[in-house]
From TrEMBL:
Pfam families: Myb_DNA-bind_6, Myb_DNA-binding
Subcellular localization: Nucleus
Gene3D superfamilies xrefs: Homeodomain-like
The species this protein was found in: Anaeramoeba flamelloides
Keywords assigned: DNA-binding, Nucleus
Highest taxon of the lineage: Eukaryota
Domain HTH myb-type as annotated: residue spans: 50-93, 104-158
CDD domains from the UniProt entry: SANT (cd00167)
Protein name: Cyclin-d-binding myb-like transcription factor
Chain ranges of the Myb-like domain: 52-96, 104-154
GO molecular function per UniProt: DNA-binding transcription factor activity; transcription cis-regulatory region binding
Gene Ontology CC: nucleus
Length: 233
């Protein structure tokens, strides 16, 4: 089993085609991760560095030369130096004095969204995002931090906001008496969302109406409809 794992993870170029289906099956078991992401994570977990401990001056000089030659390809640099890719990246940042902020500021989140759109021709992509290019524009966060922020909060915010008007229109069109009278499953299906996501978002929209606590379901719905469609009458 150990030998198979080593072959699977460190396969040479000619062997990769034969092992493609194996990685494809592994990827199926991991939600929200593409095959390249799964492969990269597993390879990092099983990476056995030849060199550990304190960096020598000779190693640092070699790292500077390799960094210029391979421009941030830490896997390739790792194979030459013999250290773990994560250790190389960490030490390179230390050498360059790059100390990226841990927390996110509201303005920084906005700049992240702008960077994503800039990299992808003015739109938010539905597929793979080029995080290295995004981080290069943002400058204050690395690619992993940008990706994590997008996945944890910003992605849902963008998706939900783009659906707000449609959610209100679809709920209003069925003339429901109360929230239990709404076919949330149908609304969710049309928006390619889950019932939970759509219902949760509608609850959030209700709270945007002034004094919503003093209103019944139909009054809130009428107010939401007016909010989004009053200028179209």
């Amino acid at each position: 089993m150990k030998e198979f794992l080593q072959k699977l993870i460190h396969a040479k170029a000619k062997q990769k085609d034969d092992l493609f289906m194996c990685w494809k099956e592994i990827q199926k078991a991991v939600e929200r991760r593409n095959m390249q992401s799964v492969y990269t994570h597993v390879r990092l977990c099983f990476w056995v560095p030849k060199v550990r401990g304190k960096w020598s001056k000779k190693e640092e000089k070699k790292l500077v030369k390799l960094q210029k030659k391979y421009e941030g390809n830490y896997y390739r640099i790792a194979r030459i130096i013999g250290r773990h890719p994560a250790n190389i990246l960490q030490h390179w940042r230390l050498m360059k004095g790059i100390h990226l902020n841990e927390g996110w500021q509201p303005k920084e989140e906005e700049r992240l969204l702008q960077a994503i759109k800039k990299v992808h021709n003015g739109e938010y992509p539905n597929g793979v995002i080029k995080w290295k290019k995004v981080a290069k524009i943002l400058k204050t966060k690395n690619p992993q931090q940008c990706r994590d922020k997008w996945q944890s909060t910003l992605k849902d915010t963008i998706t939900e906001k783009s659906h707000d008007k449609l959610i209100v229109e679809m709920v209003y069109s069925t003339d429901p008496i109360d929230t239990e009278d709404v076919n949330w499953g149908k609304v969710a299906e049309d928006l390619n969302q889950t019932s939970f996501q759509v219902r949760r978002r509608y609850k959030q929209l209700e709270k945007t109406i002034p004094n919503f606590q003093l209103m019944d379901f139909q009054e809130i719905l009428d107010s939401l409809y007016s909010k989004y469609f009053e200028n179209e009458k």
